[in-house]
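Dear U.,

For the methods section draft, I wanted the exact inputs and outputs in one place so we can describe them consistently. I've listed the two proteins in the order they'll appear in the manuscript figures. Please don't edit the token lines directly; just add comments below if something needs changing.

First protein:
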Amino acid sequence: MIKYVQFVDESRTQIQGEFGNSQDREVYPNQGEVEDDDPRYLEFINPPAPPSPDPIDKLREFLAANPDVAAILS
């Protein structure tokens, strides 16, 4: 099935939006059509999860910002 998309730039390597049909190219530049199994489209609809922060680093940041709590735990 064809998807109407807008790419980030003219390189057409990354999709930034999807439309129900073709749009005015002057208003929405870098448009294109891709199949619903196109790897760029699949990445757009299912982006990778952001990396989770290390819990130890989060604890260190918290204790540095809250010295009263750090003193209690010492």
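Second protein (the one for the lower panel):
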Amino acid sequence: MSCAPTDHLLRFFQQQSATAYLIGFSGGLDSHVLLHACAGLREHYPHLAFRALHIDHGLQAVAAAWVEHCRAVCARLAIPFAVAHLQLQIPAGESLEAVARTARYAAFSQHLQAGEMLLTAHHQNDQAETLLLHLLRGSGVNGLAAMPEVRPLARGYLGRPLLACSRAELATYAKQHGLNVIDDPSNQDSRFDRNFLRNEVMPLLEQRWPAASKTLARAARLQGESRQVLTALLREKLPHLHGSKPDTLAVSKLLAEDVAMQKALLREWLTLRGFRLPEEKKLLQVLRDVLLARPDATPCVRWEGCEMRRYRDDVYAMSPLSVHDPKQVLVWETRQPLVIASLGRTLVAEAGYPASVIVRFRQGGESVYLPQRGGHHSLKHLLQEWGVPPWERERLPLVYVGERLMWVVGLPVQP
């Protein structure tokens, strides 16, 4: 049973707690070797459960034949098989490579079960190519660490057990076991960046430096170790920078750090919050326009899937605000929950609500009677006193009985 791919898999599985694995199976050489080697391990490790998922990108005329080929391979190996069909739409300015990758991993995420690990057949040469791609994009330590061996994905994990295995070792395994593999002609199209590196650049580098792929992959691994150390240090530091509100950072505490540390802390904070990291230019804009803004300003810097805002000494990272009409008026029969579609929010009546109330949103000039504070008070001044950020104020549901404002949902306003 001893050979390079199998040996790498054995070491990998011995380090994992997962027992259920979803194999990304394209039918090409790399994924076929991964599938075949995993199937061969079941005799000695019967507690490991494997199933396969083929992604049909809908880009090749022979895609249906590839699906049936993969189905037949899995049937022979007694591995459960499923297929996901994609319909790719390429937005203007986007690359087919990037769109296909995003859609592929979205499909994997949808099929991945809780605690299950997706296995892909990325190998040493892929790792070297990934490092070069990130170098050419001007990436920092996260990008130069290239592909981690294991990372979280959806409800489970993504594992790459063959990163230390070369393409040549996989080809030797395929030849020894007589594997019938799919040859995707798009892999020869050097218009795609990765194919250009694989077909044009790496052969030239390996003429001069025969161990180029192995050396580059080692550099990526060392960068990964540096990233782990940096991540640990940043996560130890972040709790000391919390702002006055949940999920915020204090601007004054960030500004006490040097610029390099500010950038690293913000990147790690955004990662922990689940947001896509901004490009360097956008991150510098955050430092300039958000952290250095006047204390009474309310700046906002946006990128895909995220907005960074500031109010007073707190910096916020949030999903983009939905379109909301603050002029809408809603009649609420309080026996039933009220769905406010524009806010993605559902209200449930508290004790003391009448059977029917009106829900409005702030227009300006509202006042509310607070008996514990001796009379009517300006809602504007109360919101300022309670530190409600300006962008949230017109999104707070105001509950009226007749023309009298009785409750501000989520705030300590009582009749």
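Candidate sentences for the figure legend, describing the second protein: The chain has three domains: 5-212, 241-318, 329-408. Residues 212-237 form the longest helix (26 residues).

Thanks,
Y.
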